[in-house]
Structure prediction request, 77 residues.
Amino acid sequence: MLRNDRREEIEVEYVLADLWHLQRYQVAWKPARRRLQALVPLIDQLLAQKKYGILGVQDGVVLLQKATDSKPQAMID
Prediction:
């Protein structure tokens, strides 16, 4: 489930997850580590439920689109 800044559950057309940034700073910044630990299972859940599909992954940034199948090439890169 996705939440906005007011902690309300929302659905959006696109999700952009910067895993690289969180991974890089997780050692020095505890909130980054917690976000990374929460974000990876959330992405897995969205994919398993087929709510979103991966359009692309580049430099640790993942682009997901609602109601779209994951592109096989994006899963490899």
Observations:
- Residues 8-76 form one domain.
